[in-house]
Design a protein that fits this description.
about 170 residues, 5 helices, 3-stranded antiparallel β-sheet, alpha+beta, about 20% strand, elongated, single chain
């Protein structure tokens, strides 16, 4: 999604920076998903040859595995965090299988804007974001920032410290 669209969608001010997963993790996962895709296609071709022209459940399953791996490989370089002047926009981690499937086709639905004033902190493993609600409760947002590089994590914390008091 483009910066202008996000700035119109959320009350975030101007977007300062976009942060992706670290390059090592992106390449590593892309290679892993490429290997899974090749394996799925190879095994499905072997099953198709063995059974002739009939469709088999294993053939369909292996084609679905290959398709899933291709989609995941494509999504590895998506933006994980947008740093803006009024808050951050993070990609919420899907919890249910239905949400994971929806994320393939409409990943913008899982973007969540959090104002700097409400952010209490990040989990120790960068998989959770703790947000204080207006009534004083704590809302835990499941996120997946553990694969950001150390420099990018420091950028997020620096922006949080810089904008939280303004």
């Amino acid at each position: 999604m483009k910066r202008e669209e996000l700035e119109n969608m959320f009350p975030c001010g101007t977007i300062q920076e976009e942060l992706h997963n670290s390059a090592v993790m992106v390449w590593g996962f892309q290679l892993l998903y490429a290997a899974i895709t090749v394996w799925g296609i190879y095994r499905s071709v072997l099953i198709y040859r063995e059974l002739g022209s009939g469709m088999n459940m294993w053939f369909i399953l292996l084609v679905m595995v290959a398709g899933y791996a291709l989609l995941r490989m494509y999504q590895q370089d998506d933006v994980e965090v947008y740093i803006a002047t009024e808050g951050i926009i993070v990609k919420r981690t899907p919890i249910l299988v239905k949400e994971r499937i929806e994320r393939f086709f409409a990943s913008d639905l899982y973007l969540t804007f959090v104002h700097y004033q409400g952010i209490m902190g990040f989990g120790e493993d960068w998989k959770t974001l703790y947000v204080q609600t207006e009534t004083g409760g704590v809302y835990i947002v499941p996120i997946s920032l553990q694969f950001l590089s150390h420099q990018d994590k420091m950028k997020v914390l620096e922006a949080l410290n810089r904008y939280k008091n303004t």
